[in-house]
Structures are given as structure tokens and as C-alpha cells.
Amino acid sequence: MTRKPKALLVMNSGTMADQFDASRLERLAGLVDLDGQLWTDSLDAPELAAQLSEVEILLTSWGVPRLDGERLGRMPQLRAVFHCAGTVRSFVSDELWERGILVTNGADANAIPVAEFTFASIVLAGKKAQFLTNDARASREDWSYSTSRGELGNIGRTIGIIGFSRIGRRVVQLVQQLQDVTCLVSDPHADPFEVAAAGGRLVSLDELLPVSDVVTVHAPALPETRNMIGARELAAMKDHATLINTARGSLVDTAALEAACGAGRLHAILDVTEPEPLPAGSVLYDLPNVVLTPHIAGSLGTETRRMSDAALDDLERYLTGQALVAEVVSEDLGLSA
Asked: Would you call 295 a catalytic residue per the annotation?
């Protein structure tokens, strides 16, 4: 009988309950040896020392501590980390890469609900539904406000997508459902042929902004992308356009957005902000042309199990010597979230 590698789940308790129900734990137990403590949110507990000295595989998610040299030193047999969430930036270290430890993530699976949320937001923004809902609270039975936010409708719209990432690519594909849509993509690292194959056209940011009815941000949070949408970029957007940010708050200059939306010319749908959450005094809370949601676009609740399934799929491939689908290498982190 083939020996199963020893494994441990490392994540916070709420995540563990959401992502690993009985059926997924049963599948996991069929692949690895789970003798000892099944789950932990800390790799520093003395009572785990013996188990950590033998563990070969970690399944991680939100709440995993940083895998630095000291913690890795307690896990000399560790060979692979299957991350059941999106970015691995918060826990990977130079020491982990130097030891040649394999890492995967669930970014592809996590892209699905973000793209769905974004597409739904685009469709509603075409009718300015979110903002007219806010207007209704003030105007009530006087429906004249319905003409105050520009032309309504979803035919013949131009959608601008900043960042041809996993999510950005999916959004390009989803908006093809709209009639007579023009989809523009701005990404200095994207292949124009890949963009075209998905249904978009690669252009510069300066070309995208003034013609897009909706601009949606899907770039990674990197030093060079910080405040990439600032006062100049917001001023370049057309009247009544909508900015959607489901990526990272740092990509948009908050002060500039407060000023632009405060002037009433633009609309914004913000699932992420900087800081997060916004301070209570931010004008964005009170503006009817702004919609704020509490970082809900990504995988939540039952959606998180899709990432567990993806990790288990790659774990099974790993154990049977097949090529992995979601492996992450250190070089990837220079261009991804």
C-alpha cells in the first residue's frame, strides 16, 4: 500500500468551517495522512512540534501565518503548500522559495465570483440602477430624477477594462453578452492577440478613459500601480461614466475620487477602498452617485469551497505525478496580486 504524505490544514477557524465540510474532509483524508491535529491557525504552538517535524503538505487559506525561515525550520519535511485562497503574497517568503517548496493557489477559482460581481455591476450601471436607488430615497414619488444621470441602457456601450488579469480576462468575455458592445483593455503586459481572442481591443489608458461608459479596474496592487487612477485620469473620463473597483483600494487615489464624485460628474462602485474601510468622515458615504460594498466581490461562504476543490484537484495531480494547474512561482508575484 502506497504511503500517504502527512498533511495539516492551516487557516483561521471560520475559514476552516466554510471551506472544508464533511465531504471535502473525506476527500482529503483519502489523499493524505491526517493523523494528529487536523487543523491549526498557528504554527508556533509547542504541542505541534512533533507533528510539524513530519508534515510534508500544508493546505492553507485565510489566516495562515507567514512561512518564514523560523517556521520552515520546524517543518524540514515540507514539500508543498496548496493554498485554498487567492494571493499568496501574505505568507510566502524568500526562504520558502529557496527551499524549493511547491506552492499553488486558488486565484483562478476566486476570479469567478469577482468577474460575476463586476459584470452584474456593469449591467446595472448601464441603467444607473444603483444610483437611482439612492435618488429614490430623496425624491420619492417624483420620478423626474430618472433622467438626471445621463443616457440609460446597455446597447452600444463601451466598457473599459484596466488590467487583463485572470479577472479582467473573464470580464472581457462576460461583457460580450451585451449587444453591440465595444470592449477596450489597457494593460502594458497583455498580448494584443490574447485580448482580441477574448473579445477586447488593447489600447493605452489615455485612449480608454475618455470614451468608456464604464471603467472597471482589475490590475494588481504593486508599487507602480499605486494611485494609477488619480485626478488626471478621473478628469479624463466622460461625463456620467462609472468607475468600478473590485481590485485593490490602492489603485485609486481616494482624495481625488472624493473630489471627482463630490463634483457630481462621475459615478463609482467601490468594493475596495483605501483605507479599508473608509473613515467615518469620508464624503463617499453620503454621495448618491457612489455605491460602497464591504469587500464582497471575492469568494464568500459557499463560494470559497470552489477554491478548496481546486486545491484538492491539484493535490491529487501532485500525488499522481501530473502537471499542476495552479502552481505559483516567485517570478509570478511581480505581475500579479
From this structure: yes
